[in-house]
Amino acid sequence: MTRPVIVRSPLAGSPEQVFALLTESVHLARWFCDACDSDARLGGEVHAAWVDEEGEPWDRVGVWMEFDAPHRLTLRWLPVETAADQAVTGNQQITLPAADASVEAPQFDELKFAIAPHPRGAMLTVLSPTPVVDTPMRPEVLEDATQQGWNQCFQLMEQLLAQLDP
Q1: Hey, which CATH number is domain 5-163, 3.40.50.720, 3.90.226.10, 3.30.530.20, 3.40.50.800?
Q2: Distance between CA 82 and CA 79 in Å, rounded?
Q3: What is the pTM of this model?
């Protein structure tokens, strides 16, 4: 079991602009993935697609578990085969149907985002899972790779924010 990594960066955009970068399809497809469809609301689904280094496509489906504009977000990535079985309840919880108690519930990855005012514009804090890999690696190597990946994302966000109207 790997521990989550906390990364943060001040960004030159308002909290509302940063929130839009994190939730709107057109922005997500420019800094996070190759293609995206995000239903930007509590319980809305996010379909993100990438093409890997070998040219193979892959995708993930997630659900907005927390959606408190422009302050907090939680995106729960689901195994693709279970995404259709998810539902939002009134207390903002996602539950799996209890069809077979002997079947283990799938494990979820969650991205948590917090946005706060900052002298530059906004401070974005991300609580990110570290990747699970087939080859044994020291946790600190995986954590460093996660940090580096988010630093690249922050740079792309800065470029996008510079292009947005104030």
Answers
A1: 3.30.530.20
A2: 6
A3: 0.80
